[in-house]
Design goal:
heterodimer; A: about 200 residues; alpha/beta; three-stranded mixed beta sheet; B: alpha/beta; 13 helices; about 45% helix; globular
Chain lengths: ~200, ~300
């Protein structure tokens, strides 16, 4: 698995980005630069037409509410059971976590971890940081944390990919599920997108 | 919209990327005016991406007259404690100390707003001086670019707040998007002339011409009262909606709020907009523009 990182293997053919709310356009633009067919997914049936799904940054309460209301969560669980890779960035990481203390709306509950919302404070505490990411080589990944969540517990099947200087987990993977507390779609570094797109080939 | 930017240094806060980035996260969503913690909870439950904490919704500010100022920090705190979504609050145009107070309280976005009585008739707030991001209103592209040049990290078309009348919102969003399209067709000399006319650096005008969009997120505000209004603004190029009086001045705020959220997400799906519009009860009464004397128009505040 380790070897997939950064390699130029054939990428996923059609990747969806959940377009209910948030910065889905930035993910779609990144996919486009990578030559991947991106699909703006707003309806349940569209989940049948994609090979991978990204849940973007946004407000997890809004995304969770709309996704559950339109039956997207149930369908997504089926697709994940069939092996479809899913990546959540920021609000998306909250959306796919099994345990989110005090979350007012339904979530997809896919990945065995606890994610705490707004864990670093309010907007004035939002920050940028350089991360060493497992498998990305010596060049740090510049990460943008906006009212970011943190991964406060990881289950036994989870591989930690990146931590902040104080040890806080901010990127993790469980099989074909990927979670980042930050926003690779807001910077020009495409390594996380490549990494995610390689998961479906593993 | 071209939103990707160059990285700032490690550990930095209050950067342009972080300020504009939060607005990116709000896209496709609805920001609702709330006056109590209870309203804020209704808004969050309905799927709002953020709330605007204020003492009176614009319709009541309009009715009350007098000087409208920043809200009591006590009520802003109560709303911040009640919800987990971002909380915005309004400062008067040019009142940089109100903005400092809002930053100190810890609000997530400051709206330098024409809905409040302006504090300075010459200067808007120098928004670059703050770590907290700002959203500002605009009626046309020149106004939007002047605000961005001063440091606004998000723009909302002004509309005419507190009227429940969409006509000004449509006028302003069309003025902005039409002027952006037009820039794309201009040569280098004409862009320089346009920059002088707008009173902004030519680099900013060139960037907008090249990208075909503002360098920050563009929402719509001022007059949205129905799900169809919300979808209309999205089809006209808004990336999200502010709804002020339209929700809590209607017969059934919780249902209307939820319907406006859904119409904003599925703005091209007329069947869905029809479905969520059914049986919502009375919308806010609304005002015709002709009934508002010139000196009581809010959109003309700011320049």
């Amino acid at each position: 698995m380790q070897s997939a990182v950064g390699e130029r293997r054939p990428l996923t053919a059609r990747a969806g980005v959940l377009g209910l709310q948030g910065d889905f356009a930035e993910h779609l633009a990144t996919l486009d630069r990578l030559g991947v067919d991106g699909v703006d997914v707003r309806r349940r049936e569209q989940l049948d037409d994609i090979d991978a799904l990204i849940i973007p940054g946004g407000e997890s309460t809004t995304i969770g509410k709309l996704a559950s209301q339109y039956g997207i969560i149930d369908k997504l669980k089926d697709r994940v059971a069939e092996g479809m890779p899913v990546w959540g960035t920021c609000a998306g990481a909250i959306f796919i976590a099994k345990d989110v203390p005090g979350h007012p709306h339904p979530l997809a509950s896919l990945m065995d971890m606890t994610v705490e919302r707004n864990a670093f404070g309010r907007q004035v505490d939002s920050f940028e940081a350089d991360l060493d990411v497992k498998g990305f080589g010596s060049e740090p990944f510049h990460a943008v944390f906006i009212r970011a969540p943190r991964i406060s517990r990881v289950g036994p099947g989870i591989e930690v990919l990146a931590r902040l200087g104080d040890g806080t987990v901010v990127a993790a993977r469980q099989g074909r599920l990927l979670a980042t507390s930050f926003h690779p779609e807001l910077t020009h570094d495409e390594r996380f997108h490549r990494y995610f797109l390689s998961l479906g080939k593993s | 919209m071209a939103s990707q930017s160059t990285p700032d240094k490690n550990g930095s806060k209050g950067t342009w990327t972080l300020k504009t980035g939060l607005a990116q996260m709000l896209k496709g969503g609805v920001i609702m005016d709330v006056v109590t913690a209870e309203h804020a909870k209704i808004a969050e439950e309905a799927g709002a991406v953020a709330v605007m904490a204020l003492e009176r919704v614009p319709a009541d500010i309009r009715a009350a007259g007098g000087v409208a100022r920043m809200s009591d920090p006590e009520m802003i705190h109560a709303i911040m404690d009640a919800v987990t979504i971002p909380v915005m609050a309004k400062a008067r145009i040019g009142h940089f100390v109100e903005a400092q107070v809002l930053e100190a309280i810890g609000v997530d976005y400051v709206d330098e707003s024409e809905v409040l009585t302006p504090a300075d008739l010459k200067n808007h707030i120098d928004k670059h001086a703050f770590k907290v991001p700002f959203v500002c209103g605009a009626r046309d592209l020149g106004e939007a670019l002047r605000r961005i040049n001063e440091g606004a990290a998000m723009i909302r078309s002004k509309g005419e707040a507190g009227t429940g009348n969409i006509v000004e919102a449509v006028t302003h969003i069309r003025a902005i998007t039409d002027a952006i399209k037009e820039l794309g067709e201009l040569g280098p000399d004409a862009l320089e002339t346009r920059a002088r006319e707008y009173r902004v650096p030519v680099e900013l005008v060139r960037q907008v011409a090249k990208d075909g969009s503002l360098p920050v997120v563009l929402f719509c505000a001022g007059g949205i009262a129905t799900p169809a209004d919300a979808a209309l603004m999205m089809q006209l190029g808004a990336e999200g909606n502010f709804v002020g009086s339209g929700i809590f001045k209607s017969a059934d705020p919780a249902r209307r709020a939820k319907a406006i959220v859904e119409a904003t997400t599925h703005f091209r799906d007329a069947k869905l907009v029809a479905e969520v519009s059914r049986g919502l009860g009375e919308a806010m009464r609304g005002l015709s523009l002709e009934s508002i004397p010139a000196q009581e128009r809010l959109a003309v505040r700011g320049w």
